[in-house]
Design brief:
Blueprint lengths: L7 E6 L3 H10 L8 E6 L7 H9 L4 E6 L10 H19 L6 E5 L5 H18 L3 H9 L1
Parallel strand pairs: 1-2, 1-3, 3-4
Helix pairs in contact: 1-4
Length: 142
Amino acid sequence: MSNFEPEIVAFCCHYCAYTAADMAGTRRISYPSNVKIIRVPCTGKVDAIHLMKALEKGADGVYVAGCLEGDCHFKNGNIRAAAHVEKIKKTLEDLGWEPERVAMMNFSAAMGEKFAQAAEEFTEKIKALGPNPASQATSQAV
């Protein structure tokens, strides 16, 4: 399992988190290449089904990265997203999965270094948890 490289999906809001990721790249601050960013207009548009679909399709971990609390360009989208993340954590727990596979993060557009650090830390956390239980069940069934 030491060579396990997790697949991470990051739903990033256009205004803050995606811009922070872009700033990290511009400043040549690297973060794991296994973090696949999906840019969304607002994290409030990321519904619980999107998080579950990412896991169902094989992502080992998923996080939603939005604006800082109180700074959402769409008023309270990031607060709505945080509620979706908490709902999915509870669902994962009910399924016997680790709820840490899903997270909510908040960044300003100027936090490129913090974005890269958070991506690294989340990747390490998922590495420690191991592969997605759904992909393990599929490989055992074959």
